[in-house]
Amino acid sequence: MGYVAVKGGTKAIQASVDMYKNKKYIPGMEISAEHVKANMNQLINQVMSEASLYDRELASHAIKQAEGNMEEAVFLLRAHRSTLPRLYYSTVTNTREMFVERRVSASFKDIPGGQILGASPDFTHRLLDDSVTYGSEETEGDIPPDYNYELNNLPKVIDYLESEGLFTKEPEDNSTPDDITKRSIEFPSSRSERLQSLTRGQTGAVTSLGYVEIRGYGYSSHPNIGEVRVGQQPVHIDPAGDGDAYYIGDVELTEVEAFMPADEAETAGERAHEKTFKIGYGLTFGQNETKTIAMSVLDYSLSHPAEASPTADDEFVLLHIDSVESTGFISHLKLPHYVTFQSVLDRVRQTKGGRD
Amino acid sequence: MTTMVHNTQKHYRELVDLFSRPGEVRISTFDIPNFTNFPDAVLATVLTLFDNEITFYTQDQKNPGEFQTLTGGQFSENLSEADYVVVKEHELTEDVMRSLKTGTLGSPEKSATLIIEVDSIGEGRKYSLKGPGIKTANEIEMTFDPKWMIHRMELCSEFPLGIDMILIDRRNQLTVIPRTTITEVE
Amino acid sequence: MKKKRWSQLFIKYGRDEAVQFFDTYQSVVPYDIISEPTEGLTMIKVREHAENSLFYMGEVLVTETKIRQNQTVGLGVVKGSDAELSMAASFIDLCLSLGTLDEELAEILEALEIKEYVYTENRTKEILKTKVDFDMMTE
Fold first, then answer.
1. Whose CB has fewer CB within 10 Å in chain B, the N or C terminal residue?
2. Which of the four pLDDT bands, split at 50, 70 and 90, describes residue B31?
3. InterPro entries, per this entry (chain A) (predicted)?
């Protein structure tokens, strides 16, 4: 039996779309995007981060429309993003100005400014608990009596490391970053391409590859988290370019600096036999701690490639962690391939001695 | 309600038509407070084509700030960087013409578009235009020094490299000479 | 006052005050609209701390309004979809550039500074309740 290219199915497709839209509807159980926004903070964080578009309202809308399907919600946001003009580039955002709401260091107990736990599920029992209520009562606890804190001016752990002579700050590099939304990544990739690609990577993919790297398919060293920060980061624009910038709003960010003991080989040229630390860097939209830590691990492995390790191969990592690209490719496989498959069939049949 | 976007979309359509039919003349009715030293049709073209991703060059001190404010485009004093060059005819020099970028074979679109204010379209030297978008020949009269046209032919001699020109007169008439057009002075 | 400062006070702590200011005085200060409140994006450029280089981390939705009185331009760019605040911010920017309604604005900004202080103070106290005191462990 031969195949021919066919068209049709318009009515069936329309009916399928209707069925998809209608099945969401259970009378009295509908939720609004506002409900999503108010209740699904962490989901919104993931979607915004993977979509590379920061807006809680739009993300909530996308999540509702996608019935909570992450890849679909990210796709919707990316598509929406492509309809909007890019009006401005921010001035150089300095994360030292972040209003820190949570910051912990796994490396030093007594970091300047202290360990500030903020709001985190890290210290909860993972038991399903149907008594979770959203109380309006104040958090219990003592306010440190001696506080004269400026949470938007907390010292960074890397400063401490530097003051101990264990880390050497690089001079400021002000070259204009590459932008993978305007020009596809070319290999070998630049550092700005890597960071941009990692920060918008799919949470699961970035996390998995970060885990792979540590478990033994890459640099295989346990990184030490110098600092994880979550907080509100002010963003500014300076359209006139005269240094008098406007504030446009805060975005929530997660920032990670991971310490990696630098390789002998790496330091040999610089200061022989002297071990210092290098840093892997992670920064994402919203509170996305696991992903950001994994990003810092991958940033390091890609910038200091170990031989023959998959997680040191920028093409391997960067081209496969994007949510829209990977889910798009995998899911397209279910769409009609009648003609291509026909040609495969033809060849198989020919090898079997030819049957019409 | 008509917003700026409605106006620039309409103007964009006009420009596309003009690029497709070199030498055809249209009048722009774009109306907006104009604080530049150029006719409204020049400002309309700037508003339509510029955004914050482009780099432009213009000579008068007053105009760069205005273009920048309205469109976000980046002013560059370096002509060879400019995606758009907005000049009056009398400001053209051989240096200006020589500095214009004509793109690369891989990216011919990375070339300059020249927006020139001339005294008049309809009077002046007679030019005959041939090439894609023109059935036989289009004749156009305008006050435009032939020597610039010769410079332009040199810049456009290695297609797809070249420059595109939008000519606008004081009565807001526009015409376009893209890089594909062959011009002859009569 | 620097743009950075007043825009932060209005956008972060004084949305209602900004909109109210615009409603009250829009008829007093003549202006033309260059572009109505429009949604767009701002790409965030960041300095990372490993090699001190720059990268683009993603875009934030903004609403932009541009108005003018003759040569003076008022720009209002705010995070999110917020036409009202964007319009008000562009109006305030125009007033500040023109030097009109100075006193009225100064008064509002002064009040907003107090609002900011109170908010920051309370928020800081709240967050510092979760600050770890390691000395406690030896007790």
1. N
2. confident
3. PhnI
Number of neighbouring beta carbons within 10 Å of residue B12: 15
On whether residue C46 sits in a domain, the answer given is yes
Asked if C38 lies within 8 A of B5 by C-beta distance, the reply is: yes
Integer Cα distance of A276 and B64 in angstroms: 50
Q: Which domain holds residue C58?
A: 3-106
At what angle are helices C83-98 and C15-25 packed, to 10 degrees? Answer: 60
Task: Kindly determine whether residue B72 and residue A239, on different chains, have CB atoms separated by under 8 Å.
Answer: yes
Closest CA of chain B from A175, distance in Å? 17
Residue A262 has a CB neighbour count (10 Å cut-off) of 19
Asked if this assembly's ipTM is beyond 0.90, the reply is yes
CB-based contacts of A22, cutoff 8 Å, min separation 6 = none
Backbone angles phi, psi at B74, to 5 degrees: -95, 125
Domain count, chain C: 1
> How many structural domains are present in chain B?
1
**Which of B52, B68, B69 is closest, CB to CB, to A88?**
B52
Q: Do B72 and A86 touch (CB under 8 A)?
A: no
Domain that holds residue B13: 4-185
pLDDT > 90 fraction of chain A, expressed in percent and rounded: 58
Q: Do A86 and B68 touch (CB under 8 A)?
A: no
Neighbours of chain C (3+ CB pairs under 8 A): A, B
Q: Does residue C112 fall inside a structural domain?
A: no
Asked whether residue C132 is assigned to any structural domain, the reply reads no
DSSP for A232-276, written as a single string? EEEEEE-TT-SS-PEEEEEEEEEEEEEEEEPPHHHHHTTSTT---
Q: What is the pLDDT of residue A160?
A: 84
CA distances from B177 to A30, B121, B170, B182, C28 (A): 58, 13, 18, 9, 47
Note the helical H segments in A25-151.
33-39, 41-51, 56-65, 70-81
Check which CATH number belongs to the domain holding C70 and give it: 3.30.390
Provide the Cα torsion A118, A121, A125, A130; round to 10°: 110
Contact C43, C113 (CB under 8 A): no
Closest residue by Cα to residue B32 from B7, B66, B58, B1: B7
Q: Do C35 and B3 touch (CB under 8 A)?
A: yes
Residues 43-72 (B) with a CB less than 8 A from some CB of A: 51-53, 68-69, 72
Closest approach of C112 to chain A, Cα-based (Å)? 15
Closest chain A CA to residue C117: A150
User: Chain C window 21-40: which residues touch B at a Cβ cutoff of 8 Å?
Assistant: 32, 34-36, 38
Give bridge partners of residue C33 from the DSSP assignment.
C67
Among C32, C36, C38, the residue with its CB nearest the CB of B33 is C32
Contact between residue A240 and residue A115 where contact means Cβ atoms under 8 Å apart: no
Cβ contact (<8 Å) for B35 and C70? yes
pLDDT at A63 exceeding the cut of 80: yes
pLDDT of residue B46: 96
C95 belongs to a structural domain = yes
Q: What is the CATH number of the domain that holds B169?
A: 3.40.50.11310
